[in-house]
Design a protein that fits this description.
single chain, 58 residues, three-stranded antiparallel sheet, 1 helix, globular
């Protein structure tokens, strides 16, 4: 997924290597930001949606 106006603000949602019924997210930012999460794993769907909303609310 990518932001509609900021092409380098992206997130990849994946199932590989996750517990059943959970998802992983890898975040990409326009500029490197120290201390910011780059990925999260084994998240239930409501948490994935909340994390994506926060990530793309730039």
């Amino acid at each position: 997924m990518r932001h509609t106006e900021i092409a380098t603000l992206r997130a990849h949602v994946y199932l590989h290597g996750q517990r059943s019924g959970t998802y992983g997210i890898f975040y990409e930012y326009p500029h490197p930001v120290p201390g910011i999460l780059e990925s999260e794993e084994n998240l239930p769907l409501p948490k994935v949606l909340a994390s994506l909303a926060l990530h793309f609310d730039a």
